[in-house]
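Subject: complex prediction, re-run

Hi both,

The earlier run crashed halfway through, so I resubmitted it with identical inputs.
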Amino acid sequence: MSWKIWSLKKSVWVFHVNTGACNNCDIEVVDLLTPKFDVERFGIKLVGSPRHADALLVTGGVTAQAAPRLREIYRQTPKPCIVFCIGACACDKGIFTTGYHMVGPVDKIIKEIDPNAIIAYVPGCPPKPEAMISGVVKALSAL
Amino acid sequence: MTITLQNLFWIIIFPGFLFTVAVGLVASWVVRKVSALVQWRVGPPLLQPLYDVVKLLGKETLVPQDAQQVVFKAAPLVALAGTLLLSTMLWRTAISQSAFVGDIIVAIYLMILPSLALIFGSSASASPHAAVGTAREMKLVMSYELPLVLAFIVVIIKTAALVEPDRQLDLAAIAQHAPALSISGMLAFLVALLCIQAKLGFVPFDIAEAETELGSGVLMEYSGALLAIWKLTQAMLLVALPMFLVMVFLGGFATSGWPLAWSIGKYVLILVLVILIKNTNPRVRIDQAMKFFWVYCGIALGIAVVLAIIGNYTGITWL
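This time it finished cleanly. Structure:
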């Protein structure tokens, strides 16, 4: 394991992208920072700019409006970076499968511009914070 | 040759780069840990700031297409160089009392250098968010520089009668007295503490970085190794600025025996005050910050200057 991957596992800075979610997953993401879960124990920190991020937490099934923005944000993120699809919508469009305005899911949009992207899925509507932590752990140990 | 080598040792290993960075990373861990404890969280492990910097060094460094490349890349290096020079100078003054006339003025200049570099770097990044951050940083610098310099003038007046006539602008001579033990000195110390808060970019004066509305503002377009240099600069400032306050206001930084423990106590006191201010205040608007520094701090320092001059003239040391 190279020192780059080792240090990446010790300090994961996440950027939160909402591509048309109902805000339920977003509330659960913010739950991770509360005293009960406190992911800063593991060096996980929410940052304000994709340039600082190591992981993108994407919620929502990607609307036609959000797709170009998601591509742009993925390009702006320095690699190596992990994309987390948080919630049923981001993983597989959820209840919006037949929606006329949905061009997702997230992995399809990301793989259009980077076929080798590292993508992790955390299903649920919304996923529990425990499930997200478990997802992050599994994704990091697969690196 | 040996003198050159010794100077290089001072600048790069002890007490310059490596030592200050090590202390600074521990100090930034203290900031994060105490903030976490205030919020009833556990907080990050001791080596977390080190992990962050190592990780950033290993990441890809992206430079925006429209950015002014040279300025964008040079700005963090200039900031690091200025901070390195400042901290080396302060440590050398503390350890060997070696000084030159007017070094307090050089220190004031070096303290502005990281903010100036930040303004140049972020305005070169061609990002509208960073441009708003730049404007705010510029106004913030203009707000706090005046009270900060006035606070140091109070100290120079207070110590003028106590030191030898030709050493009145000499940090090593000033550091042997503790002006904070008088009314005017205490006022100046409190104002300088708030200016340090703004210089470090901490809440309530993190207007330029404004995570919520500007998405880290001035640092927005920096990534990878360049961001790591900014983080190192901030960590080193976390050592240099409180230490400068200790030397100017609180009677100097001794480096041997029991006085060393006392000096570390003074440094930690300032650090904890900064952290508590950071955790108990909301962010102010830029106009509020300007009004605070120019009107309220200005009035307080005007009173302090008058008191210091009266005290000097009449020989009352506690004024």
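Residues 26 and 52 of chain A are 20 Å apart (CA to CA).

- K.
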